[in-house]
Every structure is written in C-alpha cells, then in structure tokens.
Design brief:
About 40% of the residues lie in helices and about 15% in strands. The chain contains 12 helices and 12 strands. The protein has 2 domains: about 170 residues, Aldehyde Dehydrogenase, Chain A, domain 1 (3-Layer(aba) Sandwich), CATH 3.40.605; about 140 residues, Aldehyde Dehydrogenase, Chain A, domain 2, CATH 3.40.309.10. By secondary structure, it is of the alpha/beta class.
C-alpha cells in the first residue's frame, strides 16, 4: 500500500526527527512567531511540541512501530479526511503521520489555531523526499473522502457523527488525564508531575486536570514541589483564567486551596477549568481503581507509579505529554484502522 518500503520510511522519518530535534533558522523563526497568531503558542510551548515529535521519530521506535503492521502492496490508495484539533501545537501531527506511512492520501483540514506549523513540517518532509508532496493537500472543507479521522469536543463530535457516520471513521471527543498519587511520591516525582499539569498551560487532553489522592493527603509537599512553575502566572491569558476562577470561589465562599498560581478544589468531575486542578480522595487502591474504571471512557492517560490493572494508558510522572508512536489517542489504533480499510 505504501509506495515506500518500511526500511525507507524509517530512514525518511528518522531524518525528519533529527531535523525537528535541532531546528534550523527557518523553523526557529516560526517557533518564535507563532505567539502572534495564538497567544497560547509561546516559543517555549511550540519548541516543546516540535522537540517531542523529534524525539518520537527515532529509528528504534519507528522500526518497532512500523514492523508491527502488515502493509499490503497492492491495496488501493484511500483518501482520508483529517480534521485536526488546535488546542496545543502540532496536536494533529500523529494522524497525518499515520496516513502518510500507510501510503494513503491525507485531506487535511487544519485548525485555524495551528495551521502554519503543520504546513511547514510537511514541507520539511517534502524537502527530504519530494514524492510526499503528492500524498496530502490542505482543504477548507472535506469532500470526496473514503474515511475520516476527526478530533473535536463533545459538541462537535455529534456534528461529526452526523456528517461522517456513513464512512469508516474515528471520531474523538473531549478527554482528560488524571494523576493517581499514593502519598509516597518524592519531591522529584511531584516536580515532574508539574510538567503533566502545566505544559501547554494545561490545554491538552494528555494534561492532568485531576488528582486522585489518599484520604488525609497533605497538599503542602505537593505545593512545595511545584513552586518552580510559579512564572506561569505571568502569562496574561493564564493569569486571567486563574483570577477569574479564584474570584468565583471567593465570592461563592467555596472551599479551595491556592498557591498563587494554581487552585485546587475537591470535586468529582474530571475536566477542571484552566488554572484549576480538581481532586478526589480514595480509601484504598482498589476503590481508586474502581473510580478510574468508571471514568475510563473519558480518561486519556493516567499518571502514576501505583500498580494499576486498568485499560487506560498509564505513564510515569512527567511523561504525559511525551507520547510514543504507539500511544494512540482514546486507545484507538489509528494504524490498524488505516491498514484494514
């Protein structure tokens, strides 16, 4: 199905990974200028996203990933409509990658929030191997497609179901990530958890928006361990969210914890407002697992070192925004979907 042998694909995308890990002048300029188009896309955030993809596209992982699928040489090329999210930089890259390596054609509807980066990185790929230019196009609206992969909110997913329900599809809704703490975490682990909470300002579905903690958990040590992230409050939009939510809690006389840049509130929901982290207590590990299992369809990943037997993806502290090639969104194997079309 792919016009390239797997060995060649591994070479090409390893080269792209190397270039993304050490951005040239042109890519560096785009990384610096994105904030003009989207205030959340600070140079630090964009650089982090680019580097994460560079790290993901390494030879060993690409080899392991691609060798676990059977590509049929004579399978007809399918046009795959891709609706990309724009909540964090390059969040839709993995879907594009899957379509390209399986030899299909990507009809890409990028988010207005994040269209420049993805276009530039695909141009870098074309510079490495020109024939990729015939494998994708950017479109304003999706037409004449054989299958669709669409990422959006719970509201847009209903609209996607209506429009794309007649063709093979993967339709993703809102998800959030949680951290399960045992109370035995080190300062280093909690510092790393800060990355899971604050990277990309907490806007990604792999960002931790809720803590599950043992009864009687003392948050002082947690707050001390994440104090290093205090400068996030100097970002205007983040600060506005923090101030708004803080004033709501104060006016409503709602019990909460506040360290000056993050609000903690005991609440059962998974999705917390920006600059807020919800938390919930558990009695024992079994009850914590039951709690997570009940919400598994709404959870993207779980950050913990506790011995969990659970269907969701479990990652170590600091790793929620460092997915590997086989860490599929919503636990749906995009490659399997594409190779069996």
């Amino acid at each position: 199905m792919s016009k390239f042998h797997k060995t060649r694909l591994i070479e090409l995308f390893t080269e792209l990974g190397i270039q993304l890990s050490d951005p040239n002048k042109e890519l560096s300029a785009i990384i610096s200028s994105e904030k003009q188009y989207n205030a959340w896309f600070t140079p630090e955030s964009v650089s982090e996203a680019v580097t994460a993809i560079g790290k993901m596209l390494n030879k060993a992982d690409l080899t392991q990933w691609l060798n676990s699928y059977n590509f049929s040489e004579n399978k007809p090329i399918k046009k795959i409509g891709l609706i990309l999210a724009g909540n964090i930089p390059l969040v839709g890259f993995h879907d594009v990658l899957c379509v390209l390596v399986t030899g299909n054609f990507a009809l890409i509807k990028s988010s207005s929030q994040d269209s420049r980066l993805i276009k530039h990185i695909l141009q870098m790929l074309v510079n490495i191997e020109p024939s990729f230019s015939g494998q994708y196009s950017f479109v304003e609206r999706l037409e004449s497609f054989d299958a669709v992969i669409a990422t959006g909110s719970n509201n847009t997913s209903r609209y996607f179901d209506y429009y794309f329900g007649k063709v093979p599809n993967i339709i993703r809704k809102n998800r959030n990530s949680v951290a399960l703490l045992t109370g035995n975490e080190t300062a280093e682990q909690l510092y790393k958890l800060g990355h899971d909470i604050f990277d990309y300002f907490g806007l990604g579905c792999r960002n931790v928006s809720k803590l599950i903690v043992p009864k009687g958990y003392n948050f002082n040590f947690f707050f001390e361990s994440i104090e290093v992230y205090q400068p996030i409050i100097h970002h205007n939009k983040y600060n506005n969210n923090y101030g708004y939510n803080r004033s709501i809690y104060l006016v409503g006389n709602e019990q909460h914890l506040d360290n000056g840049f993050l609000l903690l509130k005991e609440y059962p929901a998974l999705a917390s407002p920006l600059a807020v982290l919800f938390y919930e207590y558990y009695d024992d590990l079994e009850s914590a697992q039951n709690l997570l299992q009940q919400q598994s369809d709404n959870i993207q990943c779980i950050v913990s070192t506790a011995p969990l037997t659970i269907t969701n993806q479990v990652v170590d502290f600091g790793m929620s925004q460092q997915p590997a090639l086989w860490d599929y969104a919503d636990n749906v194997d995009t490659m399997e979907f594409l190779v069996t079309l």
